[in-house]
């Protein structure tokens, strides 16, 4: 049996691939475990400076594994404990992505539905193929996408998020870009290269600065204005004390390439 999740490293970029294409890469219990293990390993891997997350086959991710969830109903409690554990596990994976030191770029082809759309919204950036579709469509089967809503409402305007959540309608890649769910839309044949190019651009920057910046990005978003400025001012002051930052500024002023030790 092939691995549920594969990892390939090249030039400071780790590419993670959800690898159950025959089922449209659902976020089963096992897939979530594999993702969590990969994220934990990446958090400690200073050689990797960016991450691309993609799905094998014709879809990015169809969301939770409904067959697995239905089977859980056979438990004496009707599945209540299993459902709580599943959503807690999924929430931990999503939180781990935002806390990962490296920026994570979703490479989206085909379908990104329900928790799959949540995964796109959780990633720091996203590149989509022109044929990609996005939806939080659980309401169509009587299950409101409450946990996907957390990431979605932090990406796109509230009224548009609410419409998607309550109608279950899908949006195309162009609309997803208009709303801010994805950064770039490219022809399908160029999708992999576009995601890797964006990752390479990030990986080419001073890693310590990007790591400091990503952490502060999410921290300040949860603060009031004054607290956010106080916090980020302290973050920038600490960043300025880094030897490689001093070298980067000196190189800019002297009009030469930086010699980062990093």
Automatic annotation (TrEMBL):
Keyword match Transmembrane helix: no
- Cross-referenced PANTHER family, in alphabetical order? ENOYL-COA HYDRATASE DOMAIN-CONTAINING PROTEIN 3, MITOCHONDRIAL, PTHR43602
Question: Biological process GO terms, please?
Answer: fatty acid metabolic process
Q: Which Gene3D superfamilies match?
A: 2-enoyl-CoA Hydratase, Chain A, domain 1, Lyase 2-enoyl-coa Hydratase, Chain A, domain 2
Its annotated function is as follows: May play a role in fatty acid biosynthesis and insulin sensitivity.
Arranged from A to Z, the UniProt key words for this protein are: Fatty acid metabolism, Lipid metabolism, Lyase, Transit peptide
Q: Family assignment?
A: Belongs to the enoyl-CoA hydratase/isomerase family.
One Pfam family name is: ECH_1
The domain of life for this entry's organism is Bacteria
- Name of the protein in its database record: Enoyl-CoA hydratase domain-containing protein 3, mitochondrial
Mention one GO molecular function: hydro-lyase activity
